[in-house]
Amino acid sequence: MDPSRPLVLAAATYACSNDAIRDYQIVWGARHGGAFDHMSVAVLAKDTRGSLQLGLHDSTAEDLALGGAVLSAALLVVAPTVEATVAAAAGGLPGAKGIAAHLRHVIPGDKLQEVSELLGFGECCLLLVAIDRRVAEISPLLEQAEKTAVVETKTGDLDAAFYGALGAATTTGHAALYRHARAAGPRAGAWLADRSSA
């Protein structure tokens, strides 16, 4: 992956889950016609205790393991309590930790804090990671949002961060899930399948 490619991390808050789901559908619909090389998007909804829970989510990544790791890494960086749920459901996601460290390196800390704080507002939130897109392309998709935080940076060597962490996990036995996902092919298996709990 060319390290100069743009990467956008975006968060948006919503008054209700219907608004968040509408924007999720708009963002997800933008993938048709090749609008996005890679995009991971998730709806996060507050439960009765006020804790964010993972709802609808998906990724355009052809490499199933990479797509899940990108979403999990973004959650690990800006909403770590939600990421724990994703990691448990997916069997650990060792590559996500490498991508999370990489995101912390390429995105300024104050911008990550802004995204993280925004996720605490509103009844529902949307979290998006897009590669080869710019802020000007992402912001208009968040039509129903009350507030947004959209950060653009360069991808840097995202592949090395993912595969380096994945390679390290091989020695501990956690990479079997990834070998299976990569062997199964694009979008097969859906170990991070959509859930409509939002």
Task: Give me a quick take on this structure.
The chain contains eight helices and five strands.
Describe this structure in words.
With 198 residues, this protein is of the alpha+beta class. It has eight helices and five strands; from the N terminus they run E-H-E-E-H-H-H-H-E-H-E-H-H. The protein has one domain. It has helices at residues 17-29, 64-78, 80-90, 94-106, 109-118, 135-138, 158-170, 176-184; strands at residues 6-14, 38-46, 52-59, 124-131, 147-154. The longest helix is centred in the middle third of the chain and has 15 residues, at 64-78. The model is unreliable at 177-198 (pLDDT under 50).
Topology:
Layout: E1 6-14, H1 17-29, E2 38-46, E3 52-59, H2 64-78, H3 80-90, H4 94-106, H5 109-118, E4 124-131, H6 135-138, E5 147-154, H7 158-170, H8 176-184
Antiparallel strand pairs: 1-4, 1-5, 2-3, 2-4
Helix pairs in contact: 2-3, 2-4, 4-7
Overall tally of domains: 1
Instruction: Describe the sheet with the most strands.
Output: 5 strands, antiparallel
End-to-end Cα distance, whole Å, is 33 Å
Q: Give me the strand/helix succession.
A: EHEEHHHHEHEHH
Percent helix, as a range, is: 40-55%
Q: What order do the strands of the largest sheet run in, or round the barrel if closed?
A: 3-2-4-1-5
The value of Rg in angstroms is 15 Å
Number of helices: 8
Query: Would you tell me the structural class of the helices and strands?
Result: alpha+beta
Morphology: globular
Strand content: 15-25%
- Per DSSP E runs of 2 or more residues, the count of β-strands stands at 5
What's the rounded overall pLDDT mean? Answer: 78
What are the segments in which pLDDT stays under 50 over at least 5 consecutive residues?
A: 177-198
